[in-house]
Amino acid sequence: MQAQEYLANFYCSEEFNQGLDNKGISLSAINILLGITAIIGNTVILIALCKETSLHKPSKVLLRNLVASDLCVGFVQLAFGARGISILQGRWETCRHLYLVNGIAGNISISVSLCTITTISVDRLLALLIKLRYREVVTVTKVYAIAIISWICCGIGFASLWYFSPDRWIVFSLTTIAVCLIISTYCYARIFFRLRHQHTQVHNNLREETQTTRMDITRYRKTVSSALWLQLTLLFCYLPYLLLVPFAYLETENNLLSMFSITLDTTITLMLFNSTLNPILYCWRLKEVRRAVKDTLSCSRM
Fold first, then answer.
1. What number of CA atoms fall less than 13 Å from residue 204's CA on the CB side?
2. CA–CA–CA angle 26, 30, 33 (5° rounding)
3. What is the residue-level pLDDT of the chain in tens, covering all 302 positions?
4. Which residue in 97, 64, 24 sits closest to 258, CA to CA?
5. Which of 288, 268, 273, 238 is nearest to 70 (CA)?
6. Which of 181, 175, 173 is nearest to 245 (CA)?
7. Is the four-CA dihedral 222, 133, 189, 213 of positive or negative sign?
8. Residue 152 vs residues 123, 146, 147, 158: alpha-carbon distances, Å
9. 3-class secondary structure for 14-25?
10. Contact in structure between 124 and 224 (CB atoms under 8 Å)
11. Helices 3-11 and 157-164 sit at what angle, rounded to 10 degrees?
12. Which segments of the chain does DSSP mark as H helices, in order?
């Protein structure tokens, strides 16, 4: 029996879930509601992005990849809520299947989201550093290749480790997340200091600043600000889970582990909630996406 199959049998048992009915009902209802919201929101964004033509194509591919992973997370959240219902109804075999589906699909979609957001930060730094060569270096073909690799290596790799070796999965996951956060932090720090340096130079040489330069810098600042909001939102939603997950597989008494299970499920709900927040951020921070969403919704009403 694989490690996760053993854990599925353990977590989906009457003994483990005694006394958790009320909290289980609340979490199930919240996850189902948020899952539906995430699916609707990300579907609308995907349709809007298909119609939007003003966004730079490589950046648009990365954004669509992030939206697609968030859409998958919405279905994971529905399954997560359904698992809670199966526990309340005492359908333990269904609960075990949903536990495995949640783990595998969740690892795939969430890891792709993390890798894509990290790639977006690198993309924004490259746009600043290599400037005119950016469109030659960062092509649509290369970005599509990165998107495919993220699903195969990050997604399937994380899911396989989760299923076959939970201990290694914990170490690998925390290491990968730490590396991604370090890369993103470095990229945004470099961007901040580079923009501040450019602002100082322009301020000292006002005659050299053209209208086009000001517009390009303003547009770039907005894209960086939008990407940074995505990064900060992800960190806010993921951090509680990341702090708790190393303890998820420690052996403790059933009563303590049951209490810990509710806390862990709550942090998982917060982590999945990130996929509901992202469509709101797209509409708030990206004028092009907001306009495309309005056009899409107005067409659907006709």
1. 6
2. 140
3. 567 787 788 778 877 777 666 667 788 899 999 999 999 999 999 999 888 888 888 889 999 999 999 999 999 999 999 998 898 888 999 999 999 999 999 999 999 999 999 999 999 899 888 887 888 889 999 999 999 999 998 899 999 999 888 888 888 888 888 898 899 989 998 988 888 776 666 555 554 555 555 656 777 778 888 888 988 998 899 888 888 876 765 544 444 455 567 788 888 899 999 999 999 999 888 888 888 888 878 776 65
4. 24
5. 273
6. 173
7. negative
8. 20, 10, 9, 10
9. CCCCCCCHHHHH
10. yes
11. 70
12. 3-11, 21-51, 57-88, 92-129, 134-137, 140-149, 157-164, 166-204, 211-244, 254-285, 287-301
Other C-beta atoms closer than 10 Å to the C-beta of 256 total 10
* Amino acid making up residue 84: G
CA distances from 280 to 49, 157, 181, 247, 273 (A): 14, 30, 22, 32, 12
Q: Of how many residues is the chain composed?
A: 302
Q: What is the DSSP secondary structure assignment for residue 130, as one 8-state letter?
A: T
Burial status of residue 220 (CB atoms within 10 A of its CB: 0-12, 13-18, 19 or more): middle
Q: How far apart are CA 82 and CA 213, in angstroms?
A: 53
Amino acid identity, residue 152? I
* Amino acid identity for residue 267 in this structure: T
Instruction: Dihedral sign for Cα 252, 100, 147, 157, please.
Output: positive
Residue 6's alpha-carbon distances to 3, 89, 165, 225, 273, in angstroms, are 5, 21, 12, 45, 28
* 125 in Cβ contact with 191 (< 8 Å): yes
The SS3 of residue 84 is helix
SS3 label, residue 55: coil
At position 223, the amino acid (one-letter code) is T
